[in-house]
Amino acid sequence: MIKTVSTTPYSDQKPGTSGLRKKVPVFQQENYAENFIQSIFDSLEDFAGQTLVIGGDGRYYNREVIQIAIKMAAANGFGQVLVGRGGILSTPAASNVIRKHKAFGGIILSASHNPGGPTEDFGIKYNIGNGGPAPEKITDAIFARSKVIDTYKIADAADINIDIEGTHTIEGTKITVIDPVADYAELMEELFDFAAIRAMFAGGFRVVFDAMSAVTGPYAKEILENRLGAPKGSVLNFMPLPDFGGHHPDPNLVHARALYEAMMADDAPDFGAASDGDGDRNLIIGRGIFVTPSDSLAMLAANAHLAPGYSKGLSGIARSMPTSGAADRVAEKLGIGMYETPTGWKFFGNLLDADKVTICGEESAGTGSNHVREKDGLWAVLLWLNVLAVRKESVLDIVREHWAAYGRNYYSRHDYEEVDSAAANGLIADLRARLADLPGKTFGGLTVEKADDFAYHDPIDKSVSEHQGIRILFAGGSRIVFRLSGTGTSGATLRVYIERFEPDAARHDIETQTALADLIAIADEIADIKGRTGRDAPSVIT
Ligand code: G1P
Ligand code: ZN
C-alpha cells in the first residue's frame, strides 16, 4: 500500500556545496528526511519506471534513511532501485553505478569528511543521470519545494534485507541489492595498468592506505590487496564504522597525522594514501614528501598519458578557483584548455560532459576524471601507482622534477572553523566593499594587481554563479583568496587560501608556512581576521 503522509515544511533544507548536511538529531526530526527526499522527487520529471541508485558512506543513520528512501522511491513510481549491499556505496562508486546502469539518478547519503555518530553529521545529496551532483537549477528547485511541501509518499512495506545481494519487489518496483565494489573495481581495471602495478608490488614496493574506518575500506581491500597483490595489512582501518571510530574521516595532515608521521620516517613505505568518509577525497604522501592536492592535480595531469585509460592524452584540465595554479602551467605546456570553476565538484560536470576537460581537481583533496562525475579518492591513488610503476622513480623524485620543470606553487589553506556567522559574513562583506580600492595598494612590499569577487560563467550552459570567493592577486603571481565554507553544519568556517609561485629551483626547499609567512600576515592585515573572528590562529592548516 502506498501512503500519502501529511507533513509540514522545514525552512532549513537548502543544499550546500554538496547536498543537505545537518547534525543527525536534525535529520531525526519528524519527517525531516522524508520531506527532503520528496522535495527531490518533486523537483524531477519523467522518472516513472526508471532506475534510482541509493547508497551511502555507512555513517550513523545511513541504514535508517536507506530504508526510507527505498520505500519512497517505490511509492513515487521508480521502476527499479539499485542499493549497495549494507547500504554502502562510495560517492565515486555511486556515480559509476548511475552511469553504467543508465539510472535516472541517485541518492547518496553522506556528509563526506565530517564526523559521524548520534550527534555528528549526516547528509543527503542527489546526483543526476550523468552520475554527477545535481546542478544548482535542481538544488534550487529542491529547496523551493522543501519550503512548501505538505505531503510525501511512502510504501507501507517491511524493511528490505540490505545485507544480502538479491532482488525484492515493493509496489511493483524492483529493488536490487548489489555488490557495492564490483562495478567500480572493474572500471579501475579498465583505466589502469594493473599488471604493471602488480609487478611493482611484487618487486617489494610498499604501499599503505588508510581507509579511516570509512567507506573506501572494502574498495581498497579488494583492489589493492586482492587484485593488485599488495600484502595483507596494507589497507588500514578498512572496516566502515558508523562513527568512523570516533575520528574525523578527513584525509589531511591534521586528521591523518599518524600516516603522515609514518611516511616521514626513515623506514617509511614507498607510498602512503588515505581517503575520506565517502571515498571521494585523497591524500597522497610519498616517502618523505607530502604532495599537496593542487600539486597532485598538476602532476597527475602531466603524467596521465602513462595510464592506459588516458593514453590518448587529455582534452583539458579544470580546477576550482581556490586551487593553486600549478595545473595551469601543465595545460599550457600540453597546449590544452584550462578552466577555473567555483568550489564544488558540480561545476565540473558540464565541462566533462562536453569533453572540454578530462581531469579535474580541487585543493581540498579532490581529484578525478571523466570516468565518473565525482571526485574519486582511490582513482587518484591508482593513477599515482600507475605512474610510479611506469616511471620507476620515487614520489619525491617525480615531485622535484615537476617543480624544476614547471616551478613550484607554495600553497596552504587556513581554516577558521565554527566562527560566529555574523562576524564571518561581516568580514567578507567588508572585503567586497573594498575591492575597488585595493588595486595599487602595497602590503608588506607586495602590490595588489587585481581584486575581485569571483564569478563563473559556465561556457556550456551559460549559467552565471556569483560571489564565489574574494580574490586578491598580487604582482608576481602571489594570491590570497577568502571564502566561506558551504558545507559546515555549525557557525561559519572562513577559508583563507594562500599561494606563491616560485620559479627558481634553488628555492624549492622552503617549509611551506615559512615560504608563505609574509602573505599570511598580509591576509590578516587586509581582512582583520584576528579582530573579527577573535581567533589567534587558524583551527586547521592544510
Ligand atoms: C569543501 C571543499 C570543496 C569541496 C566540498 C565537498 O567545500 O572546500 O572543495 O568540493 O567541501 O567535498 P566548502 O566547505 O569549502 O564549501
Ligand atoms: Zn567526500
UniProtKB/TrEMBL annotation:
Q: Name one GO biological process term.
A: carbohydrate metabolic process
Q: Name the chain's protein.
A: phosphoglucomutase (alpha-D-glucose-1,6-bisphosphate-dependent)
Which segments constitute the Alpha-D-phosphohexomutase alpha/beta/alpha domain?
13-151, 183-285, 294-406
Alphabetical list of PROSITE patterns matching this protein: PGM_PMM
What Gene Ontology terms describe where this protein resides (cellular component)? cytosol
Q: Extract one GO molecular function annotation from the record.
A: magnesium ion binding
UniProt organism field:
Rhizobium subbaraonis
Q: Which prosthetic group or cofactor does it need?
A: Mg(2+)
